Amino acid sequence: MITLSEYFSDKRYKPKWFMGDRVQGKFNNIPYIGTVGNDSLVSEIEGPIVSIFLDLPIKYKKTIYNIIFVKPDTITSRKRIFYKG
User: Fold this and answer.
1) Who wins on pLDDT, 52 or 14?
2) Terminal Cα-to-Cα distance of the chain (whole angstroms)
3) SS3 sequence of 8-48
4) Is 28 within a domain?
5) What is residue 37's predicted lDDT score, i.e. its pLDDT?
6) What's the CATH number where 44 sits?
7) Domain count of the chain?
């Protein structure tokens, strides 16, 4: 018999994105850059959802978005650029 911790480590959703990851993508064909807030599985039917805090707000259909919720497959990672000073 397995323990609860073993069961949930095998069966639960494993996130692809973690808090603070820098990402980019398109939201209704509008490009954006932002920071991941959460990657979780809310519903088995809808699948995983990633919340993204945007660097600049997006205006779409008379609504201004500062936080968007997208599928994990629609976003890509931003490369970090370190400047030598």
Assistant:
1) 52
2) 58
3) HHHHCCCCCCCCCCEEEEEECCEEEEEEEEEEEEEECCCEE
4) yes
5) 93
6) 2.30.30
7) 1
71: DSSP letter:
-
Query: 72: domain range?
Result: 13-76
Contact 57, 66 (CB under 8 A): yes
How confident is the model over 6-48, as pLDDT tens digits? 887 887 888 888 898 899 999 999 999 999 999 888 888 888 9
Q: Is residue 85 part of a domain?
A: no
Give a yes or no: residue 46 inside a domain.
yes
DSSP state of 82: -
Residue 24 lies in a domain: yes
Query: Which residues, in sequence order, are CB contacts of 24 under 8 Å at separation 6+?
Result: 31, 32, 33, 34, 75, 76, 77, 78
Q: What is the pLDDT of residue 10?
A: 80
